[in-house]
Structures are given as C-alpha cells and as structure tokens.
Amino acid sequence: MFIKQCDDDNSIEFLHRTDIKIEQIENVKIEIESKAEMERIDEKINIKYCGKPKCEFLFAYYQPEQETKANMHFRSFVNLAQALDRTMVLTNVGSSRINSCQNFTFGFYYNIKALQDMFPDVKFISQKDFQNWLKERRRKPNTEHAYILPGESNYKMELLKPYPDILRTKHCLNRFDFNLNDDTVFKQFYTGKKFTRDPIKHQQFADFLVNNLRSNIEILLTSHFVFHPLFPNVSSPIPYANHYFDEAAKITNRIKPYVAIHWRMERANISMLNECSNVLVKRITQLRESFGIKSVYLATDYPIAGGKTQSQTFHLLTEDHHNAMKLLNSTFNVNTWASSNIFSSLRNDETIEKEFLGAGMPGIVDKLVCMDADYFLATPEGCGRAQSTYTTMIIDARNASMQIGERPQLKNIVNRWIKSPGDEEN
Ligand SMILES: Nc1nc2c(ncn2[C@@H]2O[C@H](COP(=O)(O)OP(=O)(O)O)[C@@H](O)[C@H]2O)c(=O)[nH]1
Ligand SMILES: [Mg+2]
Asked: Which atom of ligand 1 is nearest to 299's Cα?
C-alpha cells in the first residue's frame, strides 16, 4: 500500500536503501500522506471557488488603453477564456483603466450581470475572490504568461526568458499568491501585420493564439499591446454599472431637452481652436431656435473641474484651449458633470473622491448623457480627436436606439459642428 502511494522516483529509491531507520520511513509516510491531504483540501477550495476540483483561470491583469478601448480589449480576453474553457478573472478598475493595480472592483464600472448574460458559457470570478482562492490554497498554483504584440510579417510565437520581477513590481502581481518565477513559461505572440484587415487572417491569428495557449496550467496570465480586437467577432460594449445610469438620469431629467457636445480636445490643431469655438457657438444658437432645445451639455476631456485633463493621453494644454472654453462658457450656461451634484452619497470616501475627480467616473457619466441627448454634436476634424472610440460608442448607441425606436427624443444620431468633405448628415 505504501509503495502504491509513492508516485515519485525519489521515494522509491529511498525505500530500496538498507541504511534507513524506521522513524525516517514514518516521516516520509507522514509527508506523503500530508501531500495527499493537501491535495484533498485544495480540491475542496477549488470546488468552493470555481465549482470544480481543478480551477483553470485566465487573468488578463493589464489592459493598455483607457476605458472605451479597455472595455473592448477586456472582451477579447473573455473570448479567449471562452475558447480555452477558463474562468475569467474580473480585473479591478479605476482612473479609466482595467488593471490589477486599481482600487475598485470590476462592478464599480461595469454591470457584471449584463456581462454574464453576454457570455453565458463563461464563468467569472472577482479579482478579490481570485486573491482569496490563492491565499487559501495549500499548494500554490503555477502560472504561464502570454504577451501579445502587433507586428512581424506573419503571426508567430516565441518563448522568452522569464521576467517575473517586472510583473511583480510594475503590475502589482506581488499581491497574488501564485508561483511566478524563473521556471514559469513566458510566451510572446506577434499578430502579424494588419491582422484585422482580412477576416480570414484575423481568424487564423485567433486560432493560432488559442491553440498555443491550451494547457492544463492552473493560471494563465495575459497582457498585450495590440490596439485591435484579438477575435473577429466583436460583441457590444460591456454595459456600465447601474449607478452611472442613475446619476446620468439625474442630469438629463433636469436639463432636457438638450444638445450634448462631445469635444475631445486632445490632438486639436491649436491654431483652429478659436474658430472651433466660434462655429460651435453659432451652431448651438441655431439648434436652440430650430429644435426648441433648452439646455447645453458639454462632455469633454478638457479639465472643466480644474486640475489635470480627463484623458491621460492629453498632455498639451495651452492658452488657446482655455480661451476656446471661455468663449463657450461666456455665451451659454453650459451644464457639465462638474456643475451637477452627482454621486454625492459616495463622495465622502477619500478614494472615491480621488477617482471622481480623475478620468474614470465622469467619463462614463458624460458618455451616457451624450447617448440620451435630443441632439448630439461631435468633435470635427482639427478641433480635436475626431476619430475617437469614445465618440463612436455614443454614436453606435444612438444609432441602435433610432433603429429600434428607443429614446424617442433623439433628433439626430450625430453631426460634426464643422463639416469636413465626406461627412454625412444624419
Ligand atoms: N469626462 C470625460 N472624459 C472624457 C471625455 N472624452 C474622453 N474622455 C477621457 O478620455 C478617455 C478616452 O479614451 P478612450 O475611452 O479609450 O477613447 P478614445 O481614446 O477617444 O478612442 C476616456 O476614457 C475618458 O477618460 C469626455 O467627454 N468626458
Ligand atoms: Mg484612447
């Protein structure tokens, strides 16, 4: 019976030696029995956290872009978790980011129930529960690491020298009690050039990724620097948590009927800003006359509440930006998230107040107010970042509402307040 339990060669060799005392054999027996006992305990812990004797997680601990893009990237990794039949960790959020260093649970930004409905086959676990699972585990689980990059002429994968220390310090992975060390397998993938242009190539890359990440490792850690979806089938954005809808409704109910302007000032042509503001003022005046619009709502990455810009990639803020805003503000009573007393019940907490004044929470409220607006004006070329996924998400939501007859107040989907050649009226 004892021999049967020995599944490693050292123990068998040990048994064949003649110089071993009885108590040493007893010690080995205890060790082996305790190993089996630990396995049993770990199985119970696994069942508690993932419903199975063995857990297999996917932990996409870092999304490289801000909220709208991070939302899309996160869905790519849910697709991957689904293809690999792994439980997806709901990474923390904050400051318009999704990554393991943030302070807030995923549910602070997103509606987890809606995410589950979008991906009924995928199991999810919160970052906190994932950490608790790791803490409880007797034998700490092993990891494998995958990093995905754009480029190279065709898709490929290579094995790299492990870099666990960077991940521990830079991505806060020292907060997780798993084995991440020089024995961990580190895979690096390249997507190949323009891999999303052709749906067949796109699918081939996705299959390559999935096939090379199939393993029975307990934890698959992933990160990337790819700006496109990893899989060709892209689902709609993960809906925001209910409290954003509640706060947005407080604003819209107070100001309707209203025109919402999304002015994404990042990357504006500085010499155009004055004209951008002038034309916008004229346009709003016309709209008020022709559509009986009462109020003006401004959503912008300009720091309307003072301090830093609302986009972390918006660095060049000049006197021209300030003057453009002054002109708008001196002409109309402009409503913004900063002039609306939103989230008042949450803001006595210092961490939430910091988040509230940063790029995350106001960005989500602004987006929802723009989706509901009677009339929507978006940033024209030259006045800022006209090609913005943030704006696109608003346009897509308004477009969908028009199609299904929801939001009957909508008078348009989107217009740019200065027309470029090729702009369509809608
Ligand atoms: N509060 C606020 N923040 C904005 C607005 N527009 C952009 N931002 C910020 O800038 C970020 C833009 O990044 P992202 O969402 O990836 O969209 P994109 O960079 O425009 O494609 C958002 O997540 C917000 O943090 C806005 O109208 N209001
Ligand atoms: Mg961005």
From this structure: 27
Q: Is residue 235 included in any domain, yes or no?
A: no
Count of C-beta atoms within a 10 Å radius of residue 171: 17
**Do 85 and 169 sit in the same domain of this protein?**
yes
Mark out the alpha helices in 17-139 (DSSP H runs).
22-50, 67-84, 112-118, 127-136
Read off the pLDDT of residues 29-50 as tens digits, 9 standing for 90 and up. Answer: 667 768 899 999 999 999 999 9
> How far does Cα 231 stand from its chain's mean position?
16
Pocket test for ligand 1, best of 310, 312, 321 (most atoms within 8 A of CB): 310
List the domain range (segments joined by +) for residue 407: 244-416
pLDDT tens by residue, 131-184 = 999 999 999 999 999 999 998 889 999 999 999 999 999 999 999 999 999 999
Q: Is residue 384 within 6 Å of ligand 1 at its C-beta?
A: no
Q: Helix H segments across 317-388?
A: 319-331, 350-356, 361-372
- Residue 272: CATH number of its domain: 3.40.50
Distance 362 CA to ligand 1 centre (A): 9
In this structure, the residue with its CA closest to atom 23 of ligand 1 is 67
Whether ligand 1 lies within 6 angstroms of the CB of 310 is answered as yes
Neighbours of ion ligand 2 (CB under 5 A): 65-66
- Helix 22-50 × helix 9-16 angle, to 10°: 160
> Ligand 1 pocket, 141 CB below 6 A?
no
Structural contact between residues 286 and 247, judged by C-beta atoms closer than 8 angstroms: no
The number of distinct structural domains making up the chain is: 3
Alpha helices, DSSP H, located in 54-184: 67-84, 112-118, 127-136, 164-170
Residue 274 falls inside a structural domain: yes
